[in-house]
Amino acid sequence: MQLANRLSKIKPSPTVAVTMRAAELRASGVDVIGLGAGEPDFATPDVILDTAHQALNDGKTKYAPPAGIIELRQAIINKFQRENQLTFDISNITVGSGVKQLLYNAFLVTLNQGDEVIVPAPYWVSYVDQVALCDGAPVVVSCERSEGFKLTPEKLRAAITTKTKWLVLNSPCNPTGAVYSREELTALAVVLRDFPQIQILSDDIYEHIRFTDAPFVTFANVAPDLKDRILTMNGVSKTYVMTGFRLGYAAGNKTLIKAMNMINSQTTTSACTISQWAAVAALAEDYDFLQQHRKIFKHRRDLLLERINGIDGITCDTPHGAFYIYPECTELMGRKTPQGKILQSDEDFAHYLLEQANVAVVHGEAFGLSPYFRISYAIAENALQEACVRIKKAVENLS
Ligand code: PMP
Ligand code: GLU
Asked: Is 204's C-beta closer than 6 angstroms to any atom of ligand 1?
């Protein structure tokens, strides 16, 4: 079978691959603890399930408009106004099968061969591959641990060329949990005002998973004058435990949104109609479960940080959002496994943990900054505790 040349530009998503590998091992009887999945372990709240059932009972089982059902787009407008103080018109909104698909639509309709997209690293895995798939060139800018894994105005300015088309921002960040402050975003906006050809993509999918009292700030809040250049994305997967519903949304420039809708019309037609009705319920109000989930995540984060920082050779700072930590494992490089293998990369270490400790994590190289690894704490506390015991033991077994 001769596949298309463009496939050579990308690889399978490493986060999805690790999750699937852990599930496979578990199904074959291996007692694997999966810390790879970026998916809340809670049950989807009843109010959402009930609405989905109701949609089925009411026969809402037909195609929807490519831009999304009017009721959902109105719920999204209300959400942006209520939670983010952002005002949008119905023609500014599009709905897709997850933020993942909307990102792809956005890159597909804007990138020509060689157009550059600035992606601060560590980054969520799919940005760079999607850009490449759409003929663009990802420009990865390393943001060091000493910088809180965040892009500085100096580094942004240095990365910009005449070909720069997009800057991708993701706060709270997957995989680091870093959260940008109002001041930090404001400083980036100062640079971006000098380059009118650059659009800003703000991926806010972890908006509601934050652990400080500081209000959430999205890029559109700090630069209302750049409104037409900002595409704000969000979704129901993480906040409302709706990963399998596959539902995301975006707000931005009408011309861009119209083009993204055209892609929907020729690819998926629309996001799943039942999921759209369920999302209307999800976005309707500030449910108590949001607070409860945050409390549980914070408790797990603290427990995990204490255990991980107690392991010789691994260190991690406190992240303020999302449900990941991104520990550094530089000191483990060069150590030898009981099987005689010298650890030369974070991938070697993640492989060792999976094979010898039956713990699945994602290696840092997948997120563009090494040597680190990502742990997702969207998993029950007892399993998290057991995973830490196993990691500690595996590291102690290195020489
Ligand atoms: N952006 C980030 C930063 C993510 O971690 C994810 C997780 N899958 C997505 C986008 C995509 O989410 P979804 O397609 O489920 O909306
Ligand atoms: N975003 C999640 C993760 O990073 C889910 C998997 C994926 O879509 O990449 O693990």
From this structure: no
